[in-house]
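New to this. Please check both lines:
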Amino acid sequence: MSPKNVIFKKMAKDKSVGVYMAKRDFVDRVDSVEPVDGVILVDPEVLKGKKAFVQLSCTFRYGREDMDVMGIAFRREIYIAIRQVYPPIQDREQSTHTKMQGKLLRKLGDNAFPFFFEFPDNLPCSVGLQPGPNDSGKQCVVEFEVKAFSAESQEAKVRKRSTVHLMIRKLQYAPENSGTAPSVKTSREFVMSDKPLHLEASLDKEIYYHGEPINVCVNVTNSSNKNVKNIIVSVDQVATVVLYSNDSYVRAVALEESGDAVAAGASLKKVYTLTPLLVCNRERRGIALDGKLKHEDTNLASSSIVKEGVLKEVLGILVSYRVMVKLIIGGILGSSEVGVELPLKLMHPKPDLASWKRRWCLRSSSAPT
């Protein structure tokens, strides 16, 4: 999360426009998303009659920037919204939505103007697939950006020196109410065996926080005449690129090959503990990560929570997690497997909602009637 009481500032090279924002992380609560707001500072002497605009965009990129050839860009704009901030179309007081904007306007003076965007409820969260050690440049990623620029008009060509970019993130946090703790069981019958093998696995809850150990309770009752040679438990990340290919990347982000054996007629009940962490998966290509700001570290991607009725095809990359429990069964003709799958959610805990409300309360509550 962006630190409190810090202002993020970035100026265009020609000093015509600058962006000031109090935060760069915006929370998607599924039923609503925090609005994006800030202040644009302009220099009328540098503008020389030009206008100043601010843009919020969501882009899905599926190739490096240097791969853009023959006018074909390996990216897709999912969402773009543009506002003219100078000359102002609305009164400054009417355009000011938060207390932080009001403080910035008083500090920066008459050439500062507020902006405010509301996210549509069908946009993806910031997420990307980790490149391999030898890859360079941006790979497959969903990213958000606030851009301020000066130009003769919204459609006119914009000079790079008159443009400033500030990356932001759209994040989701764990819901307050968790679902039922996952549990699953299965049985397998074998030829030449009168009785089956029973496998049961369960988790102690549905939602886990990043860095939290995941306890998997495994119960094996082997009434068959086969021997269980090994028990393998893994936490798998499933990243599905839904926007253009529907490809799925399944990676075990935590794995334990226990070597535990269960002889014919025996049983085993054991809790296996796994902790999926990015530090153990940094060199692995295709691992989905939460959106990253420059010079900041990130973590394994959080589970995607999709609002009911939203088309998944526009969400870029969807991420889910599951625990897989596999029994390796020995046999004369070779080994076989018996397995079960347990879905879970891996997310960040929800920050203090009360402090968010204090910081981002609408000015309408104190505006004169």
In short: Residues 99-108 form the longest helix (10 residues). The chain has four helices and 20 strands. Residues 353-369 have pLDDT under 50 and may be disordered.
